[in-house]
Predict the 3D structure of the following.
Amino acid sequence: MVFQDLGLDPRLLRSVQHLGFATPTEIQQEAIPAVLVGRDLMVSSKTGSGKTLAYLLPMMQRLLKSRPLSKQDARALILAPTRELAKQVYAQLRLFVSNTPVTAALIVGGENFNDQEKLLKRQPTVIVATPGRFLDHLEHKSVFLQGLEMLILDEADRMLDLGFMPQLNAINKAAEHRLRQTLLFSATLDHTEVDELTVALLKNPFRVALGSGHEQHSDIQQQFIFADNLTHKEALLAHVLKHEPVKQLIIFTATRDDAERLATVCVDNGFSAMGLSARLNQGQRNAVMQQFAAGKYQVLVTTDLASRGLDLLQVTHVINFDLPKHPEEYVHRIGRTGRAGAKGQAISLVGPKDWASLQKIEGFLRRPAEFSEVEGLVARFKGPTEPVEKAGKAAAKSAKSTTKAKHSGKPSAKTVKKAPAKVFFQGGDDGLAPVRRKKTPQD
Ligand code: ADP
Ligand code: MG
């Protein structure tokens, strides 16, 4: 199949051609016709498989071909959980609106409210936004949704995690009419919390799913490494920096403080690195992301702020210095590499404080984590069923560690592969504060 087969407007096809894409990805082939039929949809496929165009193209087609419900109101609203992702989507959208009568606006937190108000007065056809700031404008009556034809939620489940349900409900209520089409996109829509979203927002939805969230991503090599404590994790990080062919690397950690400290560890190891956290002001956040995307530095250290959706094609490695508390975030974090057919490495460090998260991740993935060891940096910690001091000795006795594996659900000593000294990782957060799940949205 080629893009011409999808029956899209020639202006859209020219933009696709400009991107150099000849063939729609699998999810685009499945989702585009389904969106064009006009039904509410839940669309899931692995990270990096082209979901953005799977909604932008049919959305644009509908806006170009059908008569607007209202002359003044926004016709389509795309919501994303973070400012960074909203910006990325907006950048893609701009290409598609060029040479068409469709206009677009980006409305995210951290930027001047009055400027945004002026922008909204010009009645853009499509708005790309983060939910919090968008709702502020809705309440302030700078925008109206009675004529909204399409509501699109990218990384829909993450908005739920971040506590955006009240905003989504309010937006839904403001745009409640039977002609509205609602689309949910994510790599992980098959966990039960998502039901709350689908019940609230979707009417008789059709499901387009290519694979499921727990399926192994064939382009991402995943490794887990035990670590005893924070110092040990830092030594493992230094090992990775020394031995892995890193082009660009994203390190995920639990706290903002850590994001800043680990950036220093990377710099000490000869890598250019920056920390991205919600503590930075919007100008600084923009600068960090722009420079990283432009390859101006090699390592981005961040919290889950950057786990979703960001499409950075030079990222060869992802390190989970701490494991995420929400297991689906693991899938999204590692999905910052191995995008659009490229290969990636994901290394997760597992210390005593990561144990509960590891078990949740194994449950979500429905398979045990595969552990590797780094020569000279082998952890005594192998799981919590025995005191840390004894764990090293116990691991040597295979019978004992097999029993332990049964209890803990982690791989037995036999499945722990001795890896060449070259390959290594990290992924836990000993001694660190738990991830802050914001109840109050940041945007
Ligand atoms: P997802 O949202 O599924 O994680 P994205 O929409 O961010 O994935 O797309 C991942 C990458 O694939 C992007 O760099 C995008 O430009 C590229 N891409 C999208 N569609 C195609 C296509 N049809 N052919 C080749 N590359 C594509
Ligand atoms: Mg995406």
